Amino acid sequence: MSRTRLEVFSDAVFAVAITLLALNLAVAGPGHGPLLHQVADHWSSFVVYLISFATIGLIWVNHHALIDNLVVIDRTLALLNLVLLLFVVLIPVDTATVAKYLPLGGQDAQVAVILYAAAFLGMGLSFAGIFEWTLRPGRLPQPVPERTRWKARLRFGAATILYLAAVAVAFVSPLVALVIIAGVPVYYIFERAPALGSPAGARQQ
Amino acid sequence: MSRTRLEVFSDAVFAVAITLLALNLAVAGPGHGPLLHQVADHWSSFVVYLISFATIGLIWVNHHALIDNLVVIDRTLALLNLVLLLFVVLIPVDTATVAKYLPLGGQDAQVAVILYAAAFLGMGLSFAGIFEWTLRPGRLPQPVPERTRWKARLRFGAATILYLAAVAVAFVSPLVALVIIAGVPVYYIFERAPALGSPAGARQQ
Amino acid sequence: MSRTRLEVFSDAVFAVAITLLALNLAVAGPGHGPLLHQVADHWSSFVVYLISFATIGLIWVNHHALIDNLVVIDRTLALLNLVLLLFVVLIPVDTATVAKYLPLGGQDAQVAVILYAAAFLGMGLSFAGIFEWTLRPGRLPQPVPERTRWKARLRFGAATILYLAAVAVAFVSPLVALVIIAGVPVYYIFERAPALGSPAGARQQ
Amino acid sequence: MSRTRLEVFSDAVFAVAITLLALNLAVAGPGHGPLLHQVADHWSSFVVYLISFATIGLIWVNHHALIDNLVVIDRTLALLNLVLLLFVVLIPVDTATVAKYLPLGGQDAQVAVILYAAAFLGMGLSFAGIFEWTLRPGRLPQPVPERTRWKARLRFGAATILYLAAVAVAFVSPLVALVIIAGVPVYYIFERAPALGSPAGARQQ
């Protein structure tokens, strides 16, 4: 398994998913009231679009940081990566569901946000699985020392914990759950993925 | 024909097809009953989504294993590869058809699963064609010895035989046919594609 | 302008267009009669799908053959390539139009096939434009000799002439026009793109 | 962050967005009057399709010119690039909205064109942000001299100023605003992106 091909395939999936997100913003068209009102009624679509876009964008950045340093790319990593992508491609659909049901409130809004948070949770868990794989001997140019592993796990796993919280909170308040979900990409803008060994000389791509 | 370009094009097709799969999971939206019921009624969509995702994912892994070792990439391979992709891009549509008709049962469910299995069968046959191409002299860094060819063919061709069985079984029981189809990616998770000669020094990408 | 980036962008456009083709094959779903009848009524969709898939596939192969040998990739080539892609992305939509209107016959079928042939004609003319660009000095590792230029032009341009014929014929018989359009990729399966100078040592990608 | 991965991801997003544009050209299908009339009524779709295609195509060319020369690709650039793509993926949806509402005229046509121009304005501002990033020391093989910076900014920023004008003009005349928007890619066909230091020896991709 070559790094290039794993990256090209993953990047293409990220790219298609992130572009499909915007299709949810389409208005119903003529005959459904003034366009200005239609756009204004679409506020939930715009908010969820921004959250999903930022999240997929940051996953892509972190995915890159994780894969880029690896010395070896094998079939197991490719399969773990497919599990990650399984959840990534769910995001456009779940984004559309939240956009439609959030303004209605009630149980439907809760269900929509729980599904949305669950897709992110699955994504976070898959990412944690890939991270564990990278910690095994020989995967990184320099092994991550035992004493910093848990710190690294915590940094990478912070998103997973937040998504778990979002699933739970969505039963009570879908809006608060969305705020938590929106916080994850903001967190990763400022908190870089932990440096996983020096890549110096490790790749020649 | 460069390896890179064959791979980038194929990976992009795989990526778009795998991402389009999830669009079938979209619910009808407000006015069609509680969201929880809509999602529950969608069980067939989720099951077929998982089967199709796993199958396309494993094809991609095997495609990589097959192409990666080749010493030469020519126009004939590009054409065979196009035939493979012809069936790959049918999968999202056939997945949607199964998702819609499986819960209804009867002849429609049979037809839907037969179409679905037939697309996979076409894919399997195309893959077998590419495999045969790789066995010709000068294609692999080390030729596959005569005595292991049939073993290799059987490993690669197992999927094709299973898909043929699925087409036949679907006339009687669409559900059993789906179980067979779902078994193929599970089989390939554990059974690696046969090692096709050592790639050592064979490529400089 | 790097060759890699021109190729990745073009390949992604080809890949998305070729995958979108299959979406036209989706049946209307439950409540529109037996699935078997729906599929049978879709014969025109399947035929046009095959024609469009084969055509985009062969364009991709020829595009590769043309770009791969070039010594220089510049902004003018990138703009000519964009004109080519402008017509490539029209193909899925025009394919859908032909699939819908061909079975109805009459003037609508004529208009649909004229639009379809016109998109291919535009594509052929853009390709001819790129080909002319490659004939200028310094573009190929070895200049194409004057005496073989017209032969090369004819080989590359055969498609354009056939598409022009298809546009004209479609006014009389849309079906005969489709047969002509279907003949182009069949022609290019057997007739390779002319060898444009030896690429030996010309690229280090 | 490797240049290759930033480019592959960006190119895939550009490619999907540019291909989705054409989907807006689909006619309603049989039962909606003669196909010739449907196509003729679609004039606004064709015009906006051409404008959007040319604009995304030229952004892609300029994006390449900007990224290709950089000595360093970092996380900040990746985030700025994501902001640019956030606006790029809005273009297919906003194109569809203009196509639907422009022929109706009135306030709806104004709102549609304002949204369209605003997406391009956001894109222009993001591009300007990336451009500023490239001016910091160590980003380019040779720093852009102080005295030519404003000239370079003006060249790159011309689009942003025109899009700002288009937003303002759209309140009065959506058609004139569209002419301004259409002028931007025409401008960039003739005005190259400023040469940002010599790339000689600066990259080894």
Automatic annotation (TrEMBL), chains A, B, C, D:
Chief place of localization: membrane
Entry keyword Cell division: no
GO cellular component: membrane
TM helices/strands, residue ranges: 44-61, 73-93, 113-135, 156-189
UniProt KW keywords: Ion channel, Ion transport, Membrane, Potassium, Potassium channel, Potassium transport, Transmembrane, Transmembrane helix, Transport
Topological type in the membrane: Multi-pass membrane protein
A Pfam family: TMEM175
The keyword Transcription is annotated on this UniProt entry: no
Compartments reported by the entry: Membrane
GO MF annotations in UniProt: potassium channel activity; proton channel activity
Highest taxon above the source species: Bacteria
Catalytic activity: K(+)(in) = K(+)(out)
Family per record: Belongs to the TMEM175 family.
The protein's name in its UniProt record: Uncharacterized membrane protein
